[in-house]
Amino acid sequence: MSRLPPAMATRFSIGSCIKSKCLPLRPLQIRYSSSDAPAPPLLLKLRNDLKTAMRAKDTNRLNVVRGILNEVTNSSKTSSPIQTDMQLLSLLRKRAAASETARKEFKDAGRSDLIEKEDAQLHVLQEYAGGVETWNDEQIKEAVSTVIQDMKSSSEKKIVMGDVLKRLFAPGGDLDGKPVEKAKVSVAVKQLLS
What we know:
Layout: H1 6-11, H2 14-19, H3 41-56, H4 59-76, H5 85-109, H6 112-130, H7 137-153, H8 161-169, H9 182-193
Helix pairs in contact: 3-4, 4-6, 5-6, 7-9
């Protein structure tokens, strides 16, 4: 522990602080807990499967899971991080589409070894994408029709697709936080408005 030089000690002594009316010390409260939302269940499953694939030495699954987790980590550093299973599902579908494109190119080039590799990766991606439960078309149409009926009964002049979508996905709306694909919702809104 270091000591203050005598000149500084007299300058900052308790007596001088009382005379100059220093501010009193206050206890400092520090919160050590965070209010982050819990991770999506599929993301937790991917992290566990990474460890399982490492132990089993399943290189194909390991590469796919590492790639997905890498993209999730990279997206967490952007303005729109992946926080829900639906966002993770769209990432899985994007990777599956890229894998399909690569498979077609390998087929045109006559690379059967790479075709097999892409097929195996596609199988793993589809397995994870199938694990996410989403609302079916009937449930989506039911929610959309109730919102449209509410909008018609509130005597709005013209019902526009954008207004219906805003009301559906607004905080507290019928589809807010629900496992639905926005593309399917927009198709249902178009069908019910026409």
